[in-house]
Structures are given as structure tokens and as C-alpha cells.
Design a protein that fits this description.
Elements lengths: L8 E11 L6 E7 L11 E3 L6 H13 L4 E13 L8 E11 L6 E6 L10 E9 L19
Parallel strand pairs: 1-5
Antiparallel strand pairs: 1-3, 2-7, 4-5, 6-7
């Protein structure tokens, strides 16, 4: 699919976070508590004006998960995605990063996004959990773009 240059572009970041305490390779994923139809996702969000992608991804991870003790493994790549298939008239430039989580966390927890990018004032509840990478969780919205590089 070719990208429409007339569509506005939004800069996004996404984090593949691996659990360094697990016996097998586990990826941090989440589902919306109130909107399970949104599918399984990884932490991420919008880059603010003047913000570097690396800074944005660390901010978004902390806002969404509460985790701030991460080790950057590297930037996995950038992809541009037309969001028309999701009913949005824009193109996302998506920066994907890999991190190791340096603290032990629960196997599952609920966290709240208090600054949602859609501008709503109500916090959004996310159910985070660690998923074995070999089980290949199907990430929604094209968020699995670089997940094959994690093994």
C-alpha cells in the first residue's frame, strides 16, 4: 500500500520490553480493560513536539506501566503506516525500541494512563502481563512489526 502524502503524519514510539527475571523470554503486553476489542498491544504513544524518540518512549512506558528501571537494548527500526484501515486519516511514523526490564514485576497488573493521547480526561485502565515470546502474541494494529527480532 502506498502512503498518501496529503495525510497528516503523527510521530509514535513503541517499546518491546523483555522480562530479565523470567525463566523464558517474555514480552510485556497489555489489553484495554474497558475496550478488549482494541487487541493486545505494547506500551507506546505519541512523540511530543521537540522530543527525541528515545525520550518519548521512556516517558510513555513510565506513564502507562509505572516502570522506569529499563535498559535500552536498541532501536529496532522505523516504519510508516497508513492508519486508514483503522478509520484514522493519518500516517504514523513508528519508532520501535527494545528494552530489558531491570526490576522484578508482578506477572499481571492494572495500570492507568492519566494523559491519553485522544485528549480524554478520564484515565484509561490497562491490564499488563508478561507473554512468552514463543507463544507469539498477535499484536494488534501492526505493532508486531519488529517482534521477530526479539528471539
Amino acid at each position: 500500500m502506498s502512503l498518501d502524502p496529503a495525510k497528516p503524519e503523527m510521530l509514535k514510539v513503541y517499546a518491546y520490553i523483555l522480562d530479565t527475571f523470567a525463566e523464558s523470554d517474555c514480552l510485556l503486553v497489555f489489553e484495554h480493560v474497558d475496550f478488549p476489542e482494541a487487541g493486545i498491544q505494547v506500551p507506546g504513544g505519541s512523540i511530543e513536539p521537540g522530543e527525541r524518540p528515545k525520550d518519548a518512549v521512556l516517558r510513555e512506558v513510565k506513564e502507562e506501566t509505572g516502570i522506569s528501571n529499563l535498559k535500552l537494548v536498541g532501536e529496532l527500526g522505523v516504519v510508516r503506516k497508513d492508519m486508514g484501515e483503522f478509520g484514522l486519516n493519518c500516517v504514523h511514523e513508528r519508532h520501535f525500541f527494545q528494552f530489558d526490564c531491570l526490576i522484578e514485576t508482578p506477572k499481571e497488573w492494572i495500570a492507568f494512563e492519566h494523559t491519553p493521547s485522544d485528549g480524554s480526561e478520564s484515565p484509561i485502565a490497562f491490564r499488563f502481563y508478561w507473554e512468552n515470546i514463543e507463544n507469539s502474541p498477535m499484536l494488534s494494529g501492526g505493532l508486531g512489526e519488529f517482534s521477530n527480532r526479539l528471539l
